[in-house]
Design goal:
This protein is mainly beta and about 230 residues long. Helix content is about 5%, strand content about 25%. The protein has a 5-stranded mixed beta sheet, with no helix packed on it. The chain has a 4-stranded antiparallel beta sheet with strand order 2-1-4-9, with no helix packed on it. It is globular and about 50 Å long.
Amino acid sequence: MKFLAGLLLAAAAVQAHYTFPRLVVNGKSEEADWSATRRTKNADSKTGVLSATSADIRCYSSQNAANIMTVPAGASIHYVSTQQVNHPGPTQYYLAKVPEGKSASNWDGSGNVWFKIHTTKPKMDANKQMTWPAQNEYVLTNATIPAATPSGEYLLRVEQIALHMAMQPNGAQFYLSCTQIKITGGGSGTPGPLVALPGAYTTNDPGILVNLGSIQPDAYVGPGPAVWSG
């Protein structure tokens, strides 16, 4: 009985976690899981990254993808989740432009190259419960590629930060993916601020080490730089 109970608990833990293997652009999905999105180390286990300062906070990838997905500037994007995104916390999107002479198919995304294009905040529902956009859905929230984003190859990074255990250090869980993309029809904007991952987050950031039961929804601010909207 104890063995069976242990198996049930393990299965429940996996079901509570998730990965984001497929990008959707203007309603059109990536052709297959991990086609242009880099396969993550938790593709089977579904466990999140627990350290905000580890190398895995960048892309958590175990291998590069075979393809580069075309994304028009101004496009609406979101990711498909393998399970319900039931943990409370923000969804954030970042971009990093691939340096001249390199390719999104193998560039590692190192350096002060990442800029944030989207974040979410909670609200209080009719039952006085804090809720988050797309919580309990099988897709993440929509974001828009700013129209002013210069054309070229990029890494697109998404993260959903699960904050249900975030009242203790290293209690936040980061679920994330990076997709190899090529932005077309772009503008002449200057994205920023530019940050490094790891580097942009610390364990004690108020958006990472936080007791959601002790704050009002408007008080929450996700970690990282300000959003660049073009």
